[in-house]
Amino acid sequence: MINSLSGRFLILTTVFVMLAEVLIFVPSVARFREDYLLARLERAQIASLALLADDMIAPELEAELLDNAGVYNVALRRDSSKQLVLSSPMPSEVYASFDLRDAPALTLIRDAMVRLVDPQDRVIRVMGNPLRDAGLLIEVTMNTGPLRAAMIDYGLRILVLSAVISIITALLLFLAVRVLLVKPIKGVVGAMQAYAEAPEDARRVIVPKASVRELREAEEALQSLQTQVTQSLKQRERLAQLGGAVARVSHDLRNILTSAQLFTDRIEMSEDPLVRRMAPKLVNSITRAVSLCEGTLAFGKAEEPSPTLTLFNLSSLVNEVFEAERLAIGDDPVSLSADVPAGLVIRADPEQLYRALANLLRNARQAIVAAKREGEISVQARVENGDWVIDVVDTGPGLPPKARDHLFQPFQGGARKGGIGLGLAIVAELVRGHGGSLTLRHSDDTGTAFEIRLPMGASA
């Protein structure tokens, strides 16, 4: 109850209403004291009028008038002189005098609080204006005991009434909050829990129903989020199914291409010069097809092995990549260049880094050839801020917008016509396996630059 939203709201409402009633209590008690004293003045004035009507009254009647008025003495000023109209013996001297004529509110509140906390019965003098302009001043002396008792009784009744009002108000607000806020919030929570059980079921997406604007906005935002998640799950399921189909096709195609490789080995032995010249290109084409199948299978299985880190010379590895790529370049107007320090030794998996660089160079070469222009691909390496940095830069036409929008995402559009978008995704995965990052530094009509950053760590 206390930990619930409605329970805390109930407690806070009760406390705040009580605080408000306490703030009202102080001026209320001060006003009660003023009214009490004015009533004593009124009674004293009535008693004095009885004496003025008849100058001679019995002492017993005078005592009865004073007792009914609740005072000891009554003095009335009708002109410039003050006249003691009624009097009786006082038990003690006058403790303090209070003038109710045009008294400030703060003064009345202060005097009331002082009287409320002072338990001693004292004799005080009270002055005020006579009713109906029956004189210039009326003055009485009285005890403070009955005044304080009446103030306490009035204050207790005010506090009890305030408590009842606070409880009733808090209960009404509690019910209102449960109906208007807590119940709709529980509905949203229930919709979220039901959706979490089967997020792929579009029927479980929440339908906004709240009449409160803020809750409806929350429901609409949740509806949009759930719709996107459901669509993403369906797309992932379709991609998984497609990946399974592609993996099966790639597996069979790889076997066929492997057999074709065996035949090309025999073709290379032909005496025909034309056949001998075309055989390497056929071999390279089949090799690339086999590599594509193997890459598709590896990515579809999501079984890329963890890198085996060893120390090796980066320049030698780049030269190996260049040698393999030059066979694929053939007569194409693409040149390769390297700016790698001869003594630069890095710690990584040489096979996986070879594949990453080969993919980047292959993409760059294919883009340049597709653009039917001359171009250059360069590989540069350096040590920077505790990292090994490898830049692969080309002077090709740059990546198309679709490729930049879905960079490193498989099956989201390749950088060339007919591509399936696996190359960069595989490179990014291989680099991440080393704890590094693959970044597109720039890509425009002047060329494209990728940066591979591998952390040196304790290897430095």
TrEMBL record:
Transmembrane regions listed in the UniProt entry: 6-30, 158-181
Q: Write out the catalysed reaction.
A: ATP + protein L-histidine = ADP + protein N-phospho-L-histidine
Q: Does the keyword DNA damage apply?
A: no
Q: Where is the Histidine kinase domain?
A: 248-458
Q: What class of enzyme is it?
A: transferase
Sorted keywords for this record are:
ATP-binding, Kinase, Membrane, Nucleotide-binding, Phosphoprotein, Transferase, Transmembrane, Transmembrane helix, Two-component regulatory system
Q: Does the keyword Phosphoprotein apply?
A: yes
Question: Cross-referenced CDD domains, in alphabetical order?
Answer: HATPase
One MF term from GO for this chain? Answer: kinase activity
Stated EC number for the protein is 2.7.13.3
Task: Please state what the protein is called.
Answer: histidine kinase
Species name: Thalassococcus arenae
